[in-house]
Specification:
Helices cover about 5% and strands about 45% of the residues. By secondary structure, it is an all-beta fold. About 30% of the residues are buried.
């Protein structure tokens, strides 16, 4: 009996525990004659769909055909399901009903994961045949309990001024998105004072949580006036959104409220009010050429903004050029945001010669700020970076000093007469201060 060994090279998309590309397979045949073998590759998985309902997640996907038949129907073939939190690249093993390699001979396969944690989830499927793996599918659209966010208040410190501008009407507001396909049923909100009582609609008088119905669902709000805060301190808002399957998501945010209403203060260190600078002094005035100073507030400095007006034509700096007649404020950079005392700086390359007016407005962490035409600091300064020009001329009373059209004076000249030396100095900026010749 003759024994023959044949070596065949197979091209595959991926091979477990081997470098992707080429794999070698060997087999034994007995007898004589011709033989043939076919090979297939594992494709990328089809993008699945995910549907949430009553705490369960149904994941469905279309099968891939390999070698003329469905992969799931082949011996050892199937799909591996993976779950991801929305926006995350870290895989999460699904529950038992969707774990392992899922096989089956129908064109569409599915699994139902029970007791899925609250949140937004996305799923992928990866073709598998023994130890071989195809490419992971694209992620499904997000599904799960409603996606919920409190847009105001955010973590931080609020005073009456900042609280009023957070939502309209003033209070607590946010967004919710249905991820089940059933639609949103409602959003409700609770407010707790420190570690104490909850707001019951009239006062912080309930020892147990009271969830008050908000207005709206996808965009929701709960009116709550700044005057409702009984004292300075920490408060916690918790929101709950429920879809029409009865699945609920919650989120919370803690913040501080203060009754302090004093606006912060600011000073301009450079350029000083009434000062005039040339190129070298302007560029050395701040660590980065421009305008700089300091600001302070008991609750902390939230921001400093600067406007710059060119006196020659009344235009304001818009961040890149002097353009427009409306005052525009640009944010300066704070040395220590939120601190009770901080430096600030606004980078501005040396402007053209002329006069300029700087206004500074500040905001503290409680939302107190100068408004309208009230400024924390003002400076009027000028730039004169152009050197003056100087010229000398001679005028003669007689022609005795003219030799070859050149006017001169020397000790051998005995002619009588007189002439003048005229020194002319011109400066378009701050004006000439002195001249020597």
């Amino acid at each position: 009996m003759a024994v023959r060994r044949r070596i065949v090279t197979l091209g595959v998309l991926a091979v477990a525990a081997l470098t992707a590309g080429i794999a070698l397979a060997a087999w034994l045949t007995t007898g004589t004659g011709a033989g043939a073998a076919t090979s297939g590759s594992l494709p990328q998985g089809a993008t699945p769909t995910a549907v949430a309902a009553d705490g369960d997640m149904t994941v469905s996907w279309s099968q891939n055909s390999v070698g003329g038949s469905f992969l799931g129907g082949q011996s050892g073939g199937g799909y591996v399901v993976t779950r991801y939190a929305q926006g995350s690249s870290t895989p999460v093993a699904p529950g038992s009903a969707c774990s392992g390699t899922i096989s089956g001979s129908t064109a569409t396969l599915s699994c139902v994961e029970h007791s899925v944690p609250a949140g937004a989830w996305q799923y992928t499927v990866t073709p598998a045949l023994g130890n071989w793996r195809g490419a992971e599918s694209a992620e499904s659209a997000a599904a799960g309990t409603p996606a919920l966010a409190v847009t105001s208040p955010a973590a931080g410190t609020y005073g009456a001024a900042k609280w009023i501008t957070g939502c309209s009407p003033a209070g607590i507001c946010g967004t919710a998105t249905d991820l089940s396909g059933a639609g949103l049923a409602d959003v409700s909100v609770s407010i707790r004072q420190g570690a104490g009582n909850y707001w019951n609609g009239d006062a912080f008088g309930s020892s147990s949580e009271v969830l008050l119905p908000a207005t709206g669902t996808s965009s929701w709000d709960l009116p709550f006036a700044a005057a409702n805060f009984p004292a300075d301190g920490t408060y916690t808002v918790r929101a709950a959104a429920t879809d029409n399957h009865g699945d609920t998501s919650t989120t919370s945010v803690s913040f501080a409220f203060t009754s302090e209403v004093t606006p912060p203060t600011a000073t301009i260190a450079f350029p000083g009010d009434g000062s005039s600078s040339r190129a070298s002094t302007y560029n050395a005035g701040c660590a980065t050429p421009g305008i700089c100073g300091s600001a302070a507030d008991a609750t902390g400095v939230q921001g400093v903004s600067v406007s710059i007006r060119r006196s020659s034509d009344g235009t304001y700096w818009n961040g890149s050029a002097f353009s427009g007649s409306t005052e525009t404020f640009d944010a300066a950079t704070l040395g220590s945001p939120g601190a009770a005392s901080t430096t600030w700086a606004y980078a501005l390359s040396l402007p053209a010669d002329g006069s300029y007016v700087v206004h500074v407005q500040t905001t503290d962490t409680a939302g107190n700020a100068e408004t309208g035409t009230t400024y924390a600091a003002t400076s009027t300064f000028s730039i004169d970076a152009t050197a003056p020009t100087q010229s000398l001329s001679l005028t003669a009373a007689t022609s005795a000093y003219l030799v070859s059209t050149t006017l001169y004076w020397n000790s051998t000249n005995t002619s009588t007469g007189s002439f003048q030396i005229v020194d002319t100095v011109t400066d378009s900026g701050s004006g000439p201060a002195s001249a020597q010749f």
